[in-house]
Write a structure and sequence with these properties.
- This protein has 98 residues and is α+β, with helices and mostly antiparallel strands.
- 38% of the residues lie in helices and 31% in strands.
- The chain contains three helices and four strands, in the order βαββααβ.
- The protein has a four-stranded antiparallel beta sheet with strand order 2-3-1-4, covered by helices on one side.
- 18% of the residues are buried.
């Protein structure tokens, strides 16, 4: 399987909502595991209030299925309560994989 595309999202938590956002992202692992087209899915913390998600896909169908799936829908529901700003979601081309 060739992994050649991904998504990178950064999320900024509202003050006092950092732990809730972290818990939300941790729970997202189960949803990502159920997605056939998502090859890898990572949730991470960059700083005190900054979090991120990185996903990889073998084809555009998998990436689009993820973008239209349960995780973005759930983020849309909790976002107004947990996020200080809209997520910064970028499509990326994966150059190399080990």
């Amino acid at each position: 399987m060739s992994i050649d595309r991904g998504l990178l999202a950064t999320l900024e938590a509202k003050p006092g909502k950092e732990e809730e956002l972290g818990a939300f992202l941790e729970a997202g692992r189960e949803l990502a595991a159920a997605e056939e087209g998502t090859v890898t899915w990572y949730a991470f913390r960059l700083g005190p209030t900054t979090f991120g998600i990185f996903d990889t896909f073998a084809d555009e169908d998998g990436r689009q299925a993820h973008l239209n799936g349960e995780i973005p829908a759930a983020l849309g529901q909790v976002g107004p309560d947990l996020l200080a700003a809209d997520p910064d979601i970028r499509t990326i081309d994966v150059i190399a994989v080990k």
